[in-house]
């Protein structure tokens, strides 16, 4: 029997892609488009039909090795590449590390569950909304793993099964990713790579977020009520005895839950205020990566002081939080190395020229739905939101100029595409980790989530098609 090997790591995939595109600089003709300033878009755009072949500049072995470094900054000219984005990611990580250290978010959610004891069915819409807000605002993903051990026993005590707890957490955060409004690791990075303001097109992403959340809550509540009335209808009915022994063990799951202190309440207020200030700064003050990174440093320190962390705890939690995202920060630079190789080899416009032929004469509705499908396909290969954003946006965003479609809509298609796939892809560590904690077979999860994912696909296609009419 053929043994299935482990899927390659995201870094491995990106390094292989750098080597692949470096080899293409020997195979494809180098070329350029003539460009002109588009006053409406506020940037130069390629002129359709102006592509012309230029002298080739194939990328050699050392150029290929240098590409990931050049992805952060150009060592010759000193021009900034992805280094500002990577530093921004590290500052956000430090901020989240401090907030987590105060225990404000964990304790806040725990107290909500205590208040709703005996009315646990109402925990589903409340918690899914909170998790969705975490997903859409700061890309909550790995942080959610801490809630599985807390929520599963509480939901099982209320005569639900572990699948309900996983759905509340993972579907909640997943819907937030699907409709990312200001997610710094998804929408912000993709918009930066597409050369558009990340608040452009936020209306469509908010519409996806709202509709998907309402339907998702209804879907999970329907299943929860069904198994609460008849436990034998649970998809995990055959594991009920084992799960009760494993997760409950005769203990009251609400014992020893801490109270939400005054300082923790203050941290929660500052947490919300931070993202509000970020939105205002970007939309009204012209802020970008440096200013936003500064905001997160300052608000992180302020949260630590209000949360009464000691000097060592504040600094250590900031460093630990930044360390948790060092992989994401590196992925952004390495992924941009692909763009560096393509641009240095002058094949970016050549690929655009081939793609121009594919979209020429096609409607913007067909184009944007094709982008959505393509991003879903790529998400199976590169399940990193930030990595795929930096890799795909430099090609797909300029391509939208030929299709008379706004680049902000391409960003929305990107987030919708990867957001859809993350519900089911086995290469996504957060999904597989959550299922492992809850002892849910992957096939069982697919059986549960498939109808909801199918709805999300239809919803995204409809919203993107409407957007194509509005932004074209």
UniProtKB/TrEMBL annotation:
Coiled coil: none annotated. Pfam families: DcuC. It comes from the Bacteria. GO terms for cellular component: plasma membrane. Keywords: Cell membrane, Membrane, Transmembrane, Transmembrane helix. PANTHER family: ARGININE REPRESSOR, BASIC AMINO ACID ANTIPORTER YFCC-RELATED. This is Arginine repressor. It comes from Photobacterium profundum (strain SS9).
């Amino acid at each position: 029997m053929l043994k299935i090997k482990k899927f390659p790591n995201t870094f491995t995939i990106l390094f292989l892609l750098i080597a692949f595109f470096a080899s293409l600089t020997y195979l494809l003709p180098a070329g350029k488009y003539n460009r002109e300033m588009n006053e409406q878009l506020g940037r130069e755009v390629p002129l359709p039909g102006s592509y012309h072949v230029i002298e080739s500049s194939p990328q050699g072995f050392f150029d290929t090795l240098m590409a990931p470094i050049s992805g952060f900054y150009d060592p010759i000219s000193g021009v900034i590449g992805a280094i500002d984005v990577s530093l921004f990611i590290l500052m956000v990580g430090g901020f989240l590390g401090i907030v987590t250290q105060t225990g404000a978010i964990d304790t806040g959610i725990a107290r909500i569950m205590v208040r709703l004891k005996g009315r646990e069915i109402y925990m589903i819409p409340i918690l899914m909304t909170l998790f969705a807000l975490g997903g859409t605002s700061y890309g909550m993903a790995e942080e959610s793993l801490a809630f599985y051990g807390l929520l599963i026993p509480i939901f099982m005590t209320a005569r639900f099964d572990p699948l309900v707890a996983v759905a509340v957490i993972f579907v909640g955060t997943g819907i937030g990713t699907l409709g990312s409004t200001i997610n710094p690791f998804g929408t912000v990075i993709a918009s930066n790579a597409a050369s558009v303001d990340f608040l452009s097109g936020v209306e469509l992403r908010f519409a996806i977020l709202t509709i998907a959340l309402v339907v998702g809550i209804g879907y999970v509540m329907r299943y929860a009520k069904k198994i609460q009335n008849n436990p034998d209808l649970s998809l995990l009915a055959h594991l009920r005895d084992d799960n009760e022994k494993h997760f409950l063990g005769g203990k009251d799951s609400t014992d020893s839950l801490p109270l939400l202190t005054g300082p923790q309440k203050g941290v929660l207020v500052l947490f919300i205020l931070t993202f509000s200030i970020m939105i205002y700064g970007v939309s009204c003050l012209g802020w970008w990566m440096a200013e936003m990174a500064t905001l997160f440093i300052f608000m992180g320190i302020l949260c630590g002081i209000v949360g009464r962390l000691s000097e060592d705890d504040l600094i250590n939690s900031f460093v630990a939080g930044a360390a948790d995202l060092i992989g994401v920060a590196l992925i952004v630079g390495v992924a941009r190395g692909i763009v560096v190789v393509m641009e240095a080899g002058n094949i970016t416009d050549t690929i655009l020229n081939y793609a121009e032929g594919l979209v020429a004469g096609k409607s913007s509705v067909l184009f944007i739905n094709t982008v959505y499908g393509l991003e879903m396909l790529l998400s199976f290969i590169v399940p990193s939101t930030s990595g795929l954003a930096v890799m795909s946006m430099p090609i797909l965003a300029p391509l939208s100029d030929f299709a008379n479609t706004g680049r902000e809509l391409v960003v929305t298609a990107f987030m919708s595409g990867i957001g859809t796939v993350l519900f089911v892809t086995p290469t996504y560590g957060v999904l597989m980790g959550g299922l492992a904690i809850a002892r849910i077979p992957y096939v069982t999860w697919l059986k549960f989530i498939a109808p909801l994912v199918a709805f999300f696909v239809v919803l995204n296609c409809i919203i993107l098609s409407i957007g194509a009419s509005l932004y074209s």
